[in-house]
Structures are given as structure tokens and as C-alpha cells.
Design a protein that fits this description.
Length: about 170
């Protein structure tokens, strides 16, 4: 997974972590304790990060814009790959966001996406995917909300993305 960082950080390096307690889970969708979240924060890069002054800054997304009051478009950095060399694309975002927005998947933060179009249908069990998440191109991801939500960019900073080509194979 750290392969996502390669274009920005250069060659791979050892990483050592120390904590007073163990992480309870390395599953990014179900962990809800501080230590697990800290480990994940070191291992996964967000779509949008924050500077020390809490100003949104590019991470996996090279740029983002609010194309309408209820729609955000994110453009991915080019050349991103997973640790196995497969490309990181908006399909990975689509897979992960649909997983994390679905409370039935064990996600600890599904309610963060209650403003996204189609969330209610997934929560009610009448849809399998959230219609407000789309991947119109490999480097473009769009989030359509049911109402304007300026805080949505902040929520993107806490989602650890998963390689859909690997996780889809896990029962």
C-alpha cells in the first residue's frame, strides 16, 4: 500500500512504529480506535490532506473543485501505483467509498456519507452502491450530494483507500 507514496517520496524505506498499545485492527473500514487510526494514517495517503495550519492540500488528488453547489470533482495525481505495481485509479476510490458508506460492510464511519446522493437507498438495502459516487475517467472521481455540503472535502481526508483489484477477491 505504501507504493502510493512512491511518486512523492522516492525509493522505499523502512518504517518503524512505536505505541503504548497495539492497534486493534488494520482493517481501515472497521477500525475506530486512536492507535489503529494512527497506524493507518501513516500507511495510507488520503485523497485530500491538510497542512499544519489545517488548510486542504493535494494528496492523492492533484486538484479538486466544486463544479456545482452539490457536486465535487477530484482529479488524481498521475502515475500512482499500488505496491504490486497496478495503477491506482478512480475505480479504487469508487470501490472504497461504496464500502465505507455502507454500514452493512462494518464501516465505522458510514454516516459521514449520509449527505451523498443514494446513501439512503444503500442504508435501506434497496441499492448496493451509492449513486452519488462516480468514476467518469480513470483519473476523475465525482461526489454528488443531496444537499450542498462544504465539509465534504474534510471527510475525504480520513478515508484509507483499498486496492479494488485485491479486496474484491476477499469473501
Amino acid at each position: 500500500l505504501l507504493g502510493l507514496l512512491t511518486p512523492r517520496l522516492g525509493a522505499a524505506a523502512d518504517f518503524t512504529w512505536s505505541s503504548a498499545s497495539d492497534a486493534l485492527s488494520l482493517d481501515p473500514q472497521s477500525a475506530n480506535d486512536v492507535v489503529s487510526a494512527s497506524v493507518q494514517g501513516a500507511a495510507y495517503e488520503p485523497l485530500v490532506g491538510f497542512s499544519p495550519d489545517l488548510v486542504p492540500e493535494p494528496a492523492l488528488a492533484l486538484s479538486w473543485d466544486r463544479v456545482a453547489a452539490d457536486r465535487w470533482r477530484f482529479k488524481l495525481r498521475p502515475g500512482l501505483t499500488w505496491s504490486d505495481g497496478k495503477p491506482f485509479t478512480s475505480k479504487d476510490l469508487l470501490f472504497t467509498y461504496n464500502l465505507v458508506a455502507n454500514a452493512n460492510s462494518g464501516s465505522a464511519s458510514s454516516s459521514n456519507y449520509s449527505v451523498v446522493e443514494g446513501y439512503a437507498a444503500v442504508a435501506a438495502g434497496t441499492a448496493k452502491t451509492v449513486s452519488g459516487f462516480t468514476a467518469p475517467a480513470d483519473n476523475t472521481f465525482v461526489i454528488q450530494t443531496s444537499t450542498p455540503n462544504i465539509g465534504l472535502v474534510g471527510v475525504t481526508a480520513v478515508v484509507p483507500f483499498l486496492p479494488s483489484h485485491v479486496v474484491r477477491l476477499v469473501p
